[in-house]
Write a structure and sequence with these properties.
By secondary structure, the protein is an alpha/beta fold. The chain has 2 domains: about 130 residues, Rossmann fold (3-Layer(aba) Sandwich); about 100 residues, OB fold (Dihydrolipoamide Acetyltransferase, E2P) (Beta Barrel), CATH 2.40.50.1020. It has 7 helices and 15 strands. The strands form 4 sheets. It has a 5-stranded parallel β-sheet with strand order 2-1-3-4-5, sandwiched between helices. Strands 10-9-8-12-11 form a 5-stranded antiparallel β-sheet. Strands 13-14-15 form a 3-stranded antiparallel β-sheet, with no helix packed on it. Strand 11 and strand 12 form a beta hairpin. The longest helix is centred in the middle third of the chain and has 20 residues. It is elongated.
């Protein structure tokens, strides 16, 4: 079940949206309501189990607290989808600094509310489809493919390197390669690289955007180079 949080200082608006969503999505959504974005943020910081997948947040021209709270939520709780609502469309320019999924104009029409929530749910599903599950004897980890910089194999033990952590799992590199999206390239018998992270590519090695250099094996160089050029939409000169 997905979780959605609604933030609005108007109790009638909160109740109206809650009832519309409950009738439309029934048991698909667990709904929580907050009088402000600040209150939501404090509640989530006290207990992360209260965090939702989607937030609908009211914005007013004379207040920037909601936009600030939305940005903080996105920084602290990765992957949360934001839908803004407002009766003052002059706020729109500032609203899009927080990269919302949708902007609802008040008074909120039921069909537009459902359209906004459906779009957020679709984006969440797309993100999960681009994730991989890593299973070991002691844990199960769900990792977004985009967050993986490269994968290193040593004696059938993989180290999946992300920006924030390294995850070790017993698995064949080829099996993980089959599960990852097409923006990964095998540059060596023991290395698989996210092409979105490549800054420099040569026969001597692949340099990632953080400065890490990954070796490229001679047998795989030509094919890996061609795959990288195709990914960039370029042709070899």
């Amino acid at each position: 079940m997905r979780k959605i949080a609604i933030c609005d200082s108007n109790a009638d608006v909160l109740d109206s949206m809650r009832r519309m969503l409950a009738a439309q999505y029934k048991r698909e959504l667990q709904i929580a309501v907050y009088p402000s974005g600040g209150e939501l943020l404090r509640a989530w910081q006290r207990d992360e189990r209260k965090r939702a997948d989607i937030i609908i947040m009211d914005v007013r021209a004379e207040e920037d607290g909601a936009i600030s709270a939305a940005k903080q939520v996105q920084e602290l709780f990765d992957g949360v989808k934001v839908i803004f609502s407002t009766a003052q469309l002059e706020c729109a320019e500032d609203i899009f600094d927080a990269n919302p999924v949708y902007l609802l104009a008040k008074p909120i029409r039921q069909e537009k509310l459902f359209e906004a929530v459906d779009r957020a749910l679709d984006q969440i599903s797309e993100g999960e489809a681009a994730s991989v599950t890593l299973i070991s004897k002691s844990f199960i980890a769900r990792v977004r493919a985009e967050d993986i910089w490269y994968v290193e194999s040593e004696r059938r033990v993989l180290t999946v390197h992300t920006e924030n952590e390294d995850i070790r799992v017993n698995m064949k590199l080829g099996d993980l390669e089959d599960k990852l999206p097409e923006f990964f390239v095998r540059v060596h018998q023991s290395y698989l690289v996210n092409m979105k992270r490549i800054r420099f590519f040569s026969a001597k090695g692949v340099e990632l955007s953080d400065g890490k250099v990954i070796p490229v094996s001679r047998p795989r160089y030509a094919n890996a180079k061609e795959i990288f050029l195709q990914y960039l939409g370029e042709k070899e000169v």
